[in-house]
Write a structure and sequence with these properties.
3-stranded mixed sheet, about 65% helix, mainly alpha, Four Helix Bundle (Hemerythrin (Met), subunit A)
Length: about 170
């Protein structure tokens, strides 16, 4: 059995983006219970030299739907724009990404997989990729790194979440 690029990427992206929405819901409830502000969560970091929760959530979108868009454009660069600073805005961003990813077909992903593209950080750092190699070897690891970091920030704050919240309800055989 051959595993398609669509099967290797889209279901995991969709599930984890939905799980990110679930984690934001848990953070929202925790803020209400603890008398904390959304900004307390959005600006929280594991360590001072690491980017904050809001950036981590935005990066899951950037390394999923944004990665596909970058491949189509022929270049992907880190998104340095300011992330949404509130729970509703983050949830809307996640919903938009899930909708766009949900529209991608097997054929769309096969076309993306064979595309030539570049990862660019400024003008000096340029790495050539095929779309498939970029997704499988760069964006997917980054996607899960940022999802895990967002989860870890919430745990560090004391939001009552566990591994099942990270994995979500849709991780078993269907």
């Amino acid at each position: 059995m051959t595993l398609s690029l669509h099967a290797a990427t889209i279901p995991g992206f969709l599930r984890m983006l939905a799980n990110m929405d679930h984690l934001i819901g848990k953070a929202e409830a925790w803020c209400a219970e603890q008398g904390r502000s959304e900004e307390d969560v959005c600006s929280a970091r594991i360590t001072p030299d690491m980017l904050d929760f809001a950036y981590q959530v935005k990066s899951t979108v950037s390394h999923s739907v944004g990665a596909v868009a970058g491949i189509r454009a022929g270049v992907f660069s880190p998104d340095r724009s300011e992330p949404p600073r509130g729970f509703a805005a983050m949830r809307a961003m996640l919903a938009d990404a899930r909708e766009e990813l949900g529209e991608l077909t097997e054929a769309d992903m096969e076309t993306v997989g064979t595309a030539e593209m570049e990862f660019r950080m400024g003008e000096q750092f340029v790495v050539p990729f095929t779309g498939q190699n970029f997704l499988l070897n760069f964006s997917i690891p980054n996607f899960y790194f940022h999802a895990t970091t967002a989860y870890d920030i919430l745990r560090q704050l004391g939001v009552p979440i566990g591994k099942r919240d990270y994995l979500g309800p849709d991780w078993t055989k269907q």
